[in-house]
Design a protein that fits this description.
Blueprint: E1 10-15, H1 33-38, E2 43-48, H2 50-53, E3 64-68, E4 71-76, E5 81-82, H3 84-94, H4 97-100, E6 106-108, E7 120-123, E8 129-133, H5 136-144, E9 150-152, H6 159-178, H7 185-202, H8 204-215, H9 222-238, H10 243-254, H11 263-277, H12 284-296, H13 300-304
Parallel strand pairs: 1-2, 1-6, 3-7, 6-9
Antiparallel strand pairs: 3-4, 4-5, 7-8
Amino acid sequence: MTEVQIDKPIRVGLSACLAGDEVRFNGGHAHQRYLTQTLGQFFEYVTTCPEIEAGMTIPRPAVRLVADGDRIRVVDPKNGVDWTAAMEEHAIKRASIVEEEGLSGFILKSKSPSCGMERVKVYDHNDVPNASGRGIFAAEVLRRYPRLPVEEEGRLNDPNLRENFIERVFAYNRLRAAFAADWTIGSIVEFHSSEKLLLLAHDEVSFRNLGRLVAGAKAQPRAAFAAEYQQGFMEAVAQRSTVRRHTNVLEHMLGFLRDTGDDQARQEARQAIDDYRGGLVPLIVPMTLFGYLARRYNIEYLLRQSYLRPHPKELMLRNHV
């Protein structure tokens, strides 16, 4: 088993204010050091500020989302300026950054009328806010690229959401590479084989459905198979892993130790699984043990699994889940 190898940083979209750019309405920023310094070791950010790019100034009056019948408008209430057309036009044009820049994820500024992914304030005709909206740019990105891993910076403070998002970014990057122009059925069978335990840890139903899809790939049109597999793969990994699901995978891995003849190793692995299930240790403990045993006994199937190395160990994501 090898560690995660990053030949070049993974390209990820980022709201410019989170990178430290002074583009907010008050001329300030919302710099997130975890994003730029920790994740920045492995991500190459492509920044954007939809409000500035749509023509707003720095500084500027704060804009808000306003409900107008079935439509959501972007309004500067101080000066009575309606930015809806400019923001919608820019969002449609700028969302293509995902394809043009080869992005494998997007991190957006929470609560922003342009970039907020959820719970953005929407004001009614009585000037009463309801946190039920989505930023204009964020909505277009999510509509056009439903498989793309997208998250807000605030939600990344949750260890489980953080681990899931970053795992999805790396998985999406592997998936894109697997379906490069020269892919074959054989190469996808190999790719799928290496992703089996990861998929099982997220959604057993999708794991089985994708297995059947790959088994029948030769009977399907190439483009249809590629589209269905990629959609199913990303929908699967978007399902959050749980202690129960991880435990199921760990017990599945335990079966591969039977042929080693090392009863003590199996007992230690079983104890690590039980400790994890009981909340006594984080996931990294049984994972490290299984990685060691896979290398020691050269268990080829386990050595190929992305589940044992879904993201760089330096991020220490499984130390907290």
